[in-house]
Design brief:
The chain is mainly beta. It is built from four helices and 84 strands. It has a 22-stranded parallel beta sheet that branches.
């Protein structure tokens, strides 16, 4: 039987359906509500700020699909699980009305979801959810420590996901994925976000011969079988680190910034992938463990499709160290069985084999891209690449590539190909726009790319320029040459979502005109706008978020429980009382008014790096206490002045590919200890490198008036069944990979490089360990340092190998225990324990006030006796140096001070050896007088204890 409806009836049915749909939507919209979260609410129903829930989790528990949750600024120590259809918004002041959503400011009023101490991820995603205006940090979980999204659709907008760790430290076969964001079988939009300093870390140690594989992937983002759209987002400082210690196998580290695989689709637009790293280390018995690192910036595998438009991929790197094989490929991008479409993209200064690009059974097309200054060019290993309207100015091209209308750094055939210097404006400052007269101007071909990387319209006609002089062609490369000759350039060495201004190094307290000074006072109850002490920010991190290049940040004395990431061109100063006026040159005493950044409140294995460096910035007047690393600087250049770095458990200072200037910095009792006191037959080598300072990859360190005391690097493995090799290197300073060192007026004393193991071990360079590079040491005191081996033998204070070094006017002494210095070092006018051939050298007790050389006790004792390395009257080092050295000593005393009748020739016109110049009358007494007025008024700065010496007493 069939039913027949008239035309009128059918019309009524259709109208009924439409009304039903509209009513459903309308009623659903009416039922949606806005809930509030605030530490000041009473928690009753969350419908207003006064009744707000105290935690985000409570608000989610009371919400339904379609609800919005407004979160007041502040730090919320919790791990949350979203519910379907929930929208979370941060950045509120806590007094906005229902129609005041537009008044929120997520950057000025940070809302922080922080999983510190919870040992859990921060956000568990759900379908049809939104995260907007949130800081998501300090999560710990082997998959998705920051945000975990599986089988869901999510939008993440205006969020900062930072400092999360996908950590897997075990003897099991688990792997670590997506420290910042983990996405699987999902559709995720990431817009105007920052993914910063997240790390996927996997350490596997086992003698199980069935474990042959381990992996860490996606330090910033891991994407599997998913679609991701990433727009105007910064992905920087993330790392994927995997280490395997076993009898055989392979360790993989993939995608320091992004790892996408399993037929994923990833579209990147106007985003920056900067300073990320993938590192794999494999050690094994009989040399049977391989290490593979791929895609420092981006790694794509297994039929994944990558699209990049208007992006910058820069300063990323890969590193591999295996006992069988080491493969480090694709510093910028590594594609495996995948494809990529790249347009208007800049790929610069990435390091690794295929520094810019490594294609492994993969394909990539490049249109209007600029690729230059990468470590090892581009490599196609079973793949192919095509370039049009681009600049490929790296000297190494390996594999199958085709070029059209492209400037190529090697002789190469192709329509419109040129082999002429493209003439960038200022490549040393990462300015790869085309200079006037560049052969790439108007030398491209017609393109469907109508905007360049800076959204300038293409083509821009430069009359009379180009192959045929008509000026109607497109330019080659990512940038279209404008007709304005003096167009402004904004460096992008460390990109940020906040618009930057031209960086200026400001050596004084007078801010650059038109730039801002921000104030920080950890004692305020609530942050203000930071523009004066009365409205100061409560945290340094808030001030850094607000600042741009050229600004200064003044930080009041106090204790700050935070780790910070510096910004390009922004100078930080500590040691303020909190009443200094903007625009004046303040009189600070950073050692009396202590500004302390510390992680002492955290468990040892959870402590973060305290300060991450940047470019063209100054860090002045701070105490860094008990972090993992005190300071870290990668691809930067910075000044560190008048600081104390103490008791850090990584390195006091770690840097790579950087220039670091130190003045008046003290490193006390920092410890880099590495090893496993477990009963396992690992048959591997442990390296402990650089207790106070560790530098790599052609870096430069310039240190003046610095003190490094009581630091240690210790490699250990104690139990009876552990057959390991232990190497402790550089108790105070270790530099390798052709890094350069200059030391002037520095004291390096009582440091230890130590190795302990039941099989074999060696300690090298208790004071200094230098491999490669050029080094100069002037007027330094290097004394009481030890390099210890398992048999408790004491070896060299200084280890120098395959390097050029000059040491003048210095003291290298170990209280008669001898000093083992390799031949070929240029040493002159020095006091060397055990002697060394060279002009003006002596081998006589330098007569210190108080030599402490049993440096090993500094490892175990809480008491810290730094010794006193000034010269006693009658020291043979007085007036025995040359005039080639420093013009003042470590305490600021002018050199030379003439002590008549003393010295090699009795004229008294020579400089003293070592870091301290001896006065005519001798130093003030070391024992403070009991009277209110000291008998002798000390002339030394920072003598807080008024005892005539600078020591640990003055720092308490």
């Amino acid at each position: 039987m069939s039913t027949h409806y008239s035309g009128f009836s059918r019309c009524l049915i259709r109208l009924a359906i439409v009304f039903w749909v509209l009513a459903t939507v309308f009623l659903s919209d009416l039922s949606a509500k806005t809930l509030h979260v605030s530490p000041n609410g009473d928690g009753s129903d969350g419908l207003e700020w006064s009744t707000a829930f105290p935690s985000v989790s409570e608000a989610i528990a009371q919400s339904a699909s379609g609800d919005h949750i407004w979160i007041e600024q502040g730090r919320y120590n919790e791990s949350i699980a979203l519910a379907t259809g929930i929208h979370l918004y941060g950045g509120f002041n806590g007094d906005e009305g229902p129609n005041d959503f537009h008044l929120r400011d997520w950057e000025a009023r940070p809302t922080i979801l922080d999983a510190t101490t919870l040992n859990s991820r921060v956000v568990m995603g759900a379908d049809e959810t939104v995260l907007d205006g949130l800081f998501i940090e300090n999560g710990r979980e082997r998959r998705g420590a920051g945000v975990f999204c599986e089988e869901a659709t999510m939008t993440i907008r205006s969020c900062v996901i930072r400092g999360n760790g996908a950590d897997e430290l075990s003897y099991l076969g688990w792997n670590a994925y997506g420290a910042g964001l983990y996405v699987a079988q999902s559709d995720v939009v990431l817009e105007e976000c920052q993914i910063l300093d997240n790390g996927a870390l996997h350490l596997l140690s086992s003698d199980d011969q069935n474990i042959v594989y381990t992996e860490a992937a996606g330090g910033g983002i891991y994407c599997y079988g998913s679609k991701m759209t990433i727009h105007k987002t910064l992905i920087s400082g993330n790392s994927s680190d995997a280490t395997l210690y076993t009898t055989r196998g392979t360790v993989y580290s993939l995608g320091g910034g992004i790892c996408a695989e399993g037929e994923s689709f990833v579209a990147l637009g106007e985003s920056t992938i900067h300073g990320n790293q993938a590192s794999a280390v494999g050690y094994g018995r009989y040399g049977r463990v391989g290490a593979v690192a791929g895609g420092g910036g981006i790694y794509c595998a297994r039929e994944t499709e990558l699209i990049c438009k208007g992006c910058k991929i820069e300063h990323n790197s890969v590193h591999a160290d295996g006992s069988r094989n080491s493969d480090a490929d694709g510093g910028g991008i590594h594609l495996y069985a995948s494809s990529a479409e790249m347009s208007n993209t800049l790929i610069i200064r990435n390091a690794g084999r295929g520094g810019a690009l490594y294609l492994q059974n993969a394909s990539a097309n490049f249109n209007h891209c600029t690729i230059t200054t990468n470590g090892d060019g581009i490599v196609a290993d079973g793949g192919s690449g095509a370039f049009t309207n681009s600049i490929m100015w790296d000297p190494v091209i390996t594999g199958w590539f085709t070029f059209q209308y492209t400037a190529v750094g090697e002789p190469w055939s192709g329509t419109g190909v040129i082999n002429i210097d493209p003439l960038f404006q200022n490549p040393d400052d990462d300015d790869y726009r085309l200079a006037a007269g560049s052969p790439c101007i108007d030398s491209g071909t017609t393109s469907d790319s109508l905007n360049d990387i800076e959204n300038e319209t293409r083509p821009i006609d430069i009359p009379g320029i180009g192959r045929d002089g008509t000026g109607d062609e497109f330019d080659m490369g990512a940038y279209e040459k404008t007709t304005e000759v003096n167009a402004t350039w904004t460096p992008t060495q460390t990109p940020t979502l906040t618009p930057t201004r031209t960086p200026t190094i400001t050596p004084t307290f007078t801010p650059t005109p038109n730039f801002q000074t921000y104030f920080v006072d950890g004692g305020v109850s609530q942050s203000g706008d930071g523009l004066e002490w009365g409205s100061a920010f409560k945290s340094i991190g808030e001030a850094l978020i607000e600042s741009v290049s050229g600004d200064q940040i003044w930080v009041k004395e106090g204790v700050y429980l935070e780790g910070i990431t510096l910004r390009d061109g922004v100078d930080l100063y500590g040691g303020f009382v909190g009443s200094e006026l903007k625009g004046e040159v303040p009189e600070r005493n950073w050692e009396r008014h202590k500004t302390i950044l510390t992680a002492d409140h955290l468990d040892l294995h959870k402590r973060p790096n305290l300060v991450a460096g940047a470019a063209d910035c100054t860090f002045d007047g701070f105490i860094l206490d008990k972090g993992r690393n005190g300071l870290t600087c990668i691809n930067g250049n910075m000044r560190i002045v008048d600081c104390l770095v103490r008791e850090c458990w990584g390195h006091g200072l770690e840097f790579s590919k950087s220039q670091v200037f130190l003045k008046g910095v003290k490193f006390y009792q920092n410890r880099y200890w590495y090893g496993f006191p477990y009963p396992a037959k690992l048959y591997r080598t442990y390296y402990a490198n650089g207790g106070a300072v560790y530098g790599t990859e052609e870096s430069e360190l310039y240190a003046v008036d610095c003190i490094l005391r009581g630091n240690s690097s210790w490699a250990f493995g104690f139990y009876f069944f552990v057959n390991d090799e232990m190497v402790g290197r550089g108790g105070a300073i270790m530099l390798e990979e052709d890094s350069d060192l200059t030391l002037r007026n520095c004291e390096i004393t009582n440091n230890v490089a130590r190795a302990d193991g039941d099989w074999w071990g060696i300690g090298e360079g208790g004071g200094l360990w230098l491999k490669g590079g050029n080094h100069r040491i002037e007027n330094c005191t290097i004394a009481g340092n030890s390099a210890m081996s398992p048999d408790f033998s004491y070896n060299d204070q200084i280890y120098i190998d395959d390097a050029t070094a000059t040491i003048i006017n210095s003291i290298i002494w170990n209280d008669g225990a001898g000093t083992d210095i390799d031949e070929g070092i240029d040493i002159r006018y020095c006091c060397v324990d055990g002697g060394y051939e060279g002009e003006g050298n002596i081998d006589i007790d330098p007569m210190f006030y108080d030599l402490i050389w049993e440096a090993t006790r500094l490892i175990y004792d809480n008491e810290f006796d730094p010794g006193d390395y000034r010269l006693l009257p009658g020291s043979p080092c007085i007036d025995s140096a040359s005039t080639m050295g420093a013009t003042h000593d470590l305490l600021g005393t002018p050199r030379p001070i003439d002590v008549p009748g003393v010295g090699r020739d009795g004229t008294g016109d020579e400089y003293d050896m070592g870091a301290y110049e001896s006065p005519v009358e001798g130093f003030p007494t070391l024992t403070p007088t009991p009277t209110a007025t000291p008998t002798v008024t000390p002339t030394m700065p920072f003598d807080e204890c008024v005892d005539g010496r600078i020591d640990g007493c003055d720092l308490v």
